[in-house]
Design brief:
Blueprint (H helix, E strand, L loop, with lengths): L1 H22 L3 E4 L3 E5 L6 H18 L2 E4 L6 E5 L5 H5 L15 E5 L5 E5 L2 H15 L17 E4 L4 E4 L5 E5 L7 H9 L9 H13 L4 E3 L13 H9 L3 E2 L18 E2 L12 H5 L5 E5 L17 H13 L5 E5 L7 H12 L1 H7 L1 H13 L1 H20 L27 H28 L4 H29 L10 H28 L35 E4 L5 E2 L20 E3 L4 E7 L7 E8 L10 E6 L5 E4 L7 H9 L2 E8 L6 E8 L4 E9 L1
Parallel strand pairs: 2-3, 2-4, 4-6, 9-10, 9-14, 10-11, 12-13, 13-14
Antiparallel strand pairs: 1-7, 5-6, 5-8, 15-24, 16-18, 17-24, 18-23, 19-22, 19-24, 20-21, 20-23
Length: 696
């Protein structure tokens, strides 16, 4: 017994000594302790601001007091172009990677077990401090989405730990534009009612903190007025500098930077499709090139301001195209009121910071990681699955567009609610998908409430409300469309009962919105509403009969998704990969110039002289001067087609509301029977094929 006990004690001592040896050059920080950091007071203000945020994060996550101390520091912080240059050079970390880079940092553990943070400049140092916050598990949305980070008992970074990052886009910004229905009323009446401005100091501080945590450094405020021009005041400018934020105004004055020409800016059409891309000459100009992109839009043919339905897959595809064509200087995202667009803002910020990191992980994986950080890893996979379905169905038709109405039209007929051009089969299919999603999300919401309560509010804001509100809006309109045509939703119910289901969806939406605004003792009161723009789409629907028949389902010999090709001639390392999740089919594929995709199907045309082919393409705009493709059937002569609807035209309005352009082509039949091969070739850059229909 004694021998065994001695052996056990010896083993324990050996294990302990081994652990000490392993940790000798690792960075080990137990909870409930103090962390000494060397940080020169002469560092610019943005570094001090970021350090203050990290102090708060250490306190919440580890109950660790982060204090500045030059004596035996465990955490060495400084900028290579600042007063800490000599200290950093002696820290034992290779910092040569920082040479020639701006806004870059290296975060590493040295041979003494010290954590070293070296920034190429003050911005790099500040972003390195925020990277440390992410390592702790703190979300940039911790205040804006009520994310509760998990506490830890310790933090250990191994001896070979090293992170090095730099920005891909120089100026990365957001534009808060349309604040009349959400951010403005909430700020002026709930969060900062004492301010003389619609958005005052208290709200601006929270906006700038979010931006610093997201590594954003440019802000476009709402259009200036006596109620919103806090950002034009001396206090507004000083606060922006404190958080390392540049201020800009619009496309003509994108950034206030002395001595540097402004970037000629390339904007989308309001619906996420860039109208122009930089040419080789544009990319070489002194001021560089910039992009202005919408995740929220107020304008013709119809708004989408409400629930953050802009497709992250389209955002990725278009901004990636812009980046590889030379738009590297400045990116700005119109986020509307911030709150409905949390994920799009995060994706945009991460793309602008390190586009290849997002590209390598894919948008779908990035989405899952976003929810892992904000609602908990144990439910992140399910949350991301439901949100992908949310984005997919919203891409086919956004909730604000279900009424078929338009704004900016002189004819008052466009203010009248109308049927969508969908068959009964399509409506039932969409209702079935929403019915299943509603069951899934309500079950998960209930599970979070009972078993993971700290994440309930963030889950409701980031998943529950947008998904369930979209579902109720679809139920309201699609059930009404069935009822207008004398069709009941279920076989054992009457048309009158289907109308009641439509009405019930309206009232459920009011309840969901009330729940959103009352969270955290009315913290978000006024932020969300069920009628942001007071349009017919948000009203209860009148019980009336349809004036015409329900559209019929169009028959098809064969149907293909863009990425369901069987053969292709893709070549070259610069080819963009298919973006899984893109388009109405979620399998739309960008086809590089001079490349093609082939679709095979069997059919006997008999004496039919020609085949009818219907192509659905994303309504993108030319990257070059034209946007052409050719279609070939069974090796016959190629037929060249051109498509590009100019913004403002009727064709463009139809395209962006349904999110696809239609190209119809009638092709002579060479081989009447057997297997046929349809080849689609991109003759210009920018062609994105979504779906292919072979019609009788």
């Amino acid at each position: 017994m004694l021998a065994q006990r001695i052996k056990s004690i010896a083993s324990t001592i050996v294990l302990a000594m081994t652990a000490l040896t392993l940790q000798a050059s690792a960075f080990v920080l137990p909870a409930h302790t103090e962390l000494r950091a060397s940080l020169d007071r002469k560092e610019p203000t943005v570094v001090a601001t970021a350090f203050g945020l990290l102090q708060s994060d250490f306190q919440r996550i580890l109950d660790v007091s982060l204090q500045t101390s030059a004596k035996e520091p465990q955490f060495i912080i400084g900028s290579m172009n600042g007063p800490a240059a000599a200290t950093l050079a002696a820290a034992g970390i290779d910092l040569s990677w920082l040479n020639g880079r701006a806004q870059a940092f290296v975060l590493a553990v040295n041979g003494k077990g010290q954590l070293v943070l070296a920034g190429s400049d003050a911005y790099g140092t500040a972003y390195g401090l925020m990277e440390m916050s992410r390592i702790l598990g703190v979300s940039p949305w911790e205040w804006w989405a009520d994310v509760v980070p998990e506490t830890r008992t310790s933090l250990t970074l191994p001896e070979n730990f090293r992170v090095q990052q730099a920005s891909d886009v120089t100026f990365r910004g957001i534009h808060i534009s349309d604040i009349d229905w959400g951010l403005g009323p909430w700020s002026s009446k709930t969060f900062d009612p004492s301010s003389p401005y619609t958005i005052g100091l208290k709200t601006a501080r929270r906006i700038f903190e979010l931006m610093l945590r997201l590594r954003l450094n440019l802000f476009w405020p709402p259009a200036s007025s006596p109620q919103t021009d806090f950002f034009a005041t001396r206090d507004g400018h000083f606060l922006a500098q404190t958080y390392g934020i540049f201020l800009g105004h619009d496309m003509e004055h994108p950034v206030e930077e002395e001595g540097v020409p402004a970037p000629l800016m390339f904007s989308d059409d309001g619906y996420g499709y860039l109208t122009r891309f930089p040419t080789a000459e544009d990319a070489q100009r002194n001021g560089g090139c910039g992009v202005y992109y919408h995740a929220s839009y107020k304008g013709a043919p119809q708004d989408y301001l409400w629930l953050g339905t802009a497709s992250p897959f389209l955002l990725y595809q278009q901004l990636t195209e812009a980046y590889y064509h030379g738009a590297l200087r400045l990116w700005v995202l119109n986020v509307g009121d911030i709150k409905p667009c949390e994920y799009q803002t995060s994706l945009f910020a991460d793309l602008a910071w390190d586009i290849n990191a997002v590209r390598q992980m894919s948008v779908a994986r990035h989405l899952e990681e976003f929810y892992a950080l904000n609602v908990g890893r144990d439910i992140a996979r399910l949350a991301s699955i439901y949100m992908k379905e949310f984005y997919h169905l919203s891409f086919q038709c956004k909730p604000e567009h279900l009424a078929g109405t338009r704004i900016g039209e002189s004819d008052p007929v466009w203010q009248q609610i109308r049927d969508l051009p969908w068959s009964e089969k399509k409506i039932r299919h969409r209702l079935t998908r929403y019915d299943q999603m509603q069951r899934n999300v309500e079950w998960l919401l209930d599970s979070v409430y009972h078993y993971n309560y700290p994440h309930y509010d963030s889950f409701f804001q980031l998943v529950g409300y947008p998904v369930l509100a979209t579902i109720e809006m679809n139920l309201k309109f699609l059930l009404a469309q069935l009822a207008r045509h004398g069709i009941s939703w279920l076989a054992d119910e009457t048309v009158k009962q289907t109308w009641r289901r439509s009405d019930l969806a309206f009232y459920k939406l009011q309840q969901l919105t009330k729940q959103y605004n009352s969270q955290h003792k009315d913290k978000w009161k006024g932020m969300m509403t069920t009628d942001p723009t007071i349009q017919p789409v948000f009203k209860m629907l009148p019980h009336e009969d349809a004036k015409g028949p329900m559209p019929a389902e169009q028959p098809a010999i064969a149907t293909f998704y863009g990425a369901s090709y069987q053969a292709s001639s893709f070549s070259g390392s610069d080819v963009l990969d298919p973006v899984l999740g893109l388009g109405a089919s979620i399998r739309a594929i960008p086809i590089p110039k001079d490349c093609n995709v082939t679709y095979k199907y069997n059919y006997n045309y008999g004496n039919t002289p020609s085949a009818n082919v219907e192509l659905h393409l994303l309504p993108t705009h030319p990257i070059e001067t034209q946007q052409r493709l050719s279609v070939t059937l069974d090796g016959g002569a190629p037929i060249v087609l051109t498509y590009d609807a100019q913004p403002g035209t009727e064709e463009w309005k139809q395209n962006v509301l349904r999110n696809y352009a239609v190209v119809l082509v009638n092709i002579p039949v060479i081989l009447p029977a057997g297997e046929h091969q349809l080849v689609v070739t991109a003759l210009d850059e920018g062609v994105v094929l979504d779906e292919v229909f072979i019609r009788p």
